[in-house]
Amino acid sequence: MKIKVIDGMENIRVDKFLSSSLNLSRNIISKSKILVNGEETKLSYKLKLDDIVEIEVIEKKELKIVENNIKIKTIYEDEYLAVVDKPYGIVVHPSETSNDDSLVGSLVNKFEKLSDIDKLRPGIVHRLDKDTSGLIIIAKDNDTHLKLQEMFKSHNLEKVYLAILKGNFKYDKITVKSYIGRDKKNRKKMSSNTDKGRLAISHFEKIKSNDKISLVKVSIETGRTHQIRVHAKELNYPVLYDSLYTKDNNSKKRQQLHSYYLKFTHPITNNVIELKCEMPDDMIKTLKNFDLGDFDVRI
Q1: What backbone phi and psi angles, to 5 degrees, belong to 151?
Q2: Domain boundaries, the chain
Q3: Catalytic residues
Q4: To the nearest whole number, what is the mean pLDDT of the chain?
Q5: Is the dihedral of CA 231, 233, 235, 238 positive or negative?
Q6: pLDDT tens across 189-211, in order?
Q7: Given CA atoms 245, 248, 250, 255 in this order, what sign does their dihedral have?
Q8: CA distances from 93 to 2, 131, 290 (A)
Q9: Tell me: domain 2-56, CATH 3.10.290.10, correct?
Q10: For residues 19 and 16, what is the distance between their CA atoms, to the nearest angstrom?
Q11: pTM (2 d.p.)
Q12: How far apart, in whole angstroms, are the C-alpha atoms of residue 222 and residue 157?
């Protein structure tokens, strides 16, 4: 598709021009090939009179659930819901950026029934980052799914993570409150440096530390994307091996973050469910490699 820049359209960024002219989302434009006068150009280019703008929209790939045989440990299960231990290294569900092995690809093989409100996310009520391990709740029917969603929306549950941070954490306890949204400079990151942030609250408590690393537990009142990773970074103690939020990373290792503890009232039976999930071997090994000893934490 070609568009000629006429009088009144000059001095406008090409991405804003395409968005208003063709009603395309910023996400689609950023993934498309854009030419001005036959040459590929940056989205920030400001148009001149009589420029010829071309855009080649990259078609969205069809998303589908790819079944897999990844072993998923069940921590709790009844007829309405289950809580599983998500391994690190797999996404929760297929997306435009990842249509490979996913947690749902294993769940559809593991459970006879799952909620189907979202066909690409059967059973999925909340998410964990690809390289975060630990407890995640799965709904088996739509009624339970909706009740669980409301529970998360109203923050009526306790969630505690274990994190290994870089450096000797100087606080015994500290609460971080900030408004988190997409970073202004890097859209892959979340940050407090944003125009449209949502309130995020994290409570950090040191378990033990040395001059190299610290083991902390983090209870969160909210569940914003990358919340703990952002707050740890902003405290100047980033999550160890977090390749997105620290330059000092190890590409062969994953961010040292684990969803360890959940406590909630069952949305159907009203029973109080309290669960813990063992720290995975790679994090235990990290503690030993940095001379921080064996893992021992009581919540």
Answers
A1: -60, -45
A2: 2-56, 61-154, 156-299
A3: 129
A4: 90
A5: positive
A6: 899 888 889 999 999 999 999 99
A7: negative
A8: 36, 13, 34
A9: yes
A10: 5
A11: 0.79
A12: 10
Q: How many CA atoms lie within 13 A of 1 on its CB side?
A: 11
- In the chain, the amino acid numbered 31 is K
Residue given tokens 């609460």 in the structure block: 175
CA angle 69, 71, 73 (to 5 degrees): 145
Class of domain 61-154 (CATH, top level): alpha beta
| Same-fold call for 61-154 versus 156-299 | yes
Give the Cα separation of 217 and 230 in Å (integer).
Answer: 15
d(Cα 290, Cα 287) in Å, to the nearest integer? 5
CA distance 50 to 37: 9
Q: Which CATH architecture has domain 156-299?
A: 2-Layer Sandwich (3.30)
Rg (CA), the chain: 23
Structure tokens that stand for 119 in this block: 């066909």
